[in-house]
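Much of what follows relies on a compact textual record of a protein's fold. A complete example follows; check for yourself that the lines match position by position.
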Amino acid sequence: MPFILALLFSISSNLDNFVIGFSYGVQNKRIDLIPNIIIALITAIVTYVSMILGQWLTHLISHQESSDIGSIVFIGLGLWSIGNSFSNNKKTRHDDTKELGFKAAIGLGILLSINNIGVGILGSVSRLNINLITILTFITSILLTYLGNHLGNNVIGKWLGKYNDLVSGLLLVILGLLSFVYAL
């Protein structure tokens, strides 16, 4: 069960990578392996640091309280994301380059990792395994960016990209419910 929770956590916190990869793919722009690894390293490091911070915070409250708070916040964040999916009109930025460069990869990595700060703290408060989360965040970041980039012109890719907030929100709600039940 801890692996499934960690995997759901990693996927939900990295779904934006799919959308970014997708938006580059739609514009016929490639995200090669090295820039993809740079993005994944940045998101994994930021997730790790935020989880360490969250772990420090757990020393201030009991295990059961921190698990309950984390579960409730995951569910709330998921519901907020689901609500946001019905009210957001996202616009894609256009760029004339055909490949993602080193500087752009660092910038994207930083932007994509901002989402992982709050979620990383919550994951730690919910007592998810920090090392497993960090590794899975790195792997899912690479996979979702690659998948989005290559499916950018595909109908399935367009549908998933359109419903990113909804899918991410549902995963967070499931994660919150599972971590609440698992903590009992």
In short: Residues 91-97 have pLDDT under 50 and may be disordered. The radius of gyration is 16 Å. The CA atoms of residues 42 and 109 lie 5 Å apart. DSSP finds seven helices and no strands in the chain.
